[in-house]
Amino acid sequence: MDFVVIAIATSIGLILGAIISRYFTLRQFNHDKLQQELQLSKSQLHQYRQDVSSHLETTNQLMMQLQDNYGRIARHIADSKMQLVEQPADKPDSELNYLSGDIASHIRQSLDQIDEKRRVYSDTVQQPRDYSGQSSGLIKQKAVEQTK
After folding, report:
1. Positive or negative torsion for Cα 78, 80, 86, 88
2. For the chain, what are the domain ranges?
3. Per-position pLDDT tens, the chain of length 148
4. Are 107 and 99 spatial neighbours (Cβ–Cβ below 8 Å)?
5. CB-CB contact of 97 with 104 (8 Å)
6. In terms of pTM, does the model score above 0.70?
7. What are the distances in angstroms from CA 24 to CA 30, 39, 131?
8. CA distance 115 to 108
C-alpha cells in the first residue's frame, strides 16, 4: 500500500510540476515577446527621428537656396531699374519714336482723317425693323398648304 500512495503522490507531484512549469514558461515567453516588441518600437522611433532630422536638414538647405535666389532676383531688379528707369533721357521733352519721321507724320494725318470720318452722322429717319417683310420658314409653308 505504501507503494500505491508513493505512486499517486509522485504522479500528482509530476502533474502539478508540469502545470507550474508550463505557467512560468508562458510568462517567460510573453516577457520575451514584449521585449522584442519594445526593441522593434525603439528601432522604429530611432528611424523616425533620423527621417525627421534628414527632412529638416533638406528643408533648411532649400530655404537657404530660396533666400539666395530671392536676393539675386532683388539685386537683378534693382540693377535693371537703374539701367531702364532711372537713367536720364537724352532729350527729356522728345517722344520715343521707333518709326522714321515721315511715317510718323503720315500716321498722325491718317488718325486725323479717321477722326473726321467719325464725326459724320447719318440721316436715317426710319429705325431698322426687327423682322423681315416677307414670310419665311414654317410660316411660309403653312401659307402654301392653306392655299391648296
Report:
1. positive
2. 1-86
3. 788 888 888 999 989 888 888 887 877 777 788 888 999 999 999 999 999 999 999 999 999 999 999 999 999 998 888 777 766 555 544 555 566 777 777 777 777 676 555 555 556 666 666 666 666 666 665 545 555 5
4. yes
5. yes
6. no
7. 10, 22, 105
8. 11
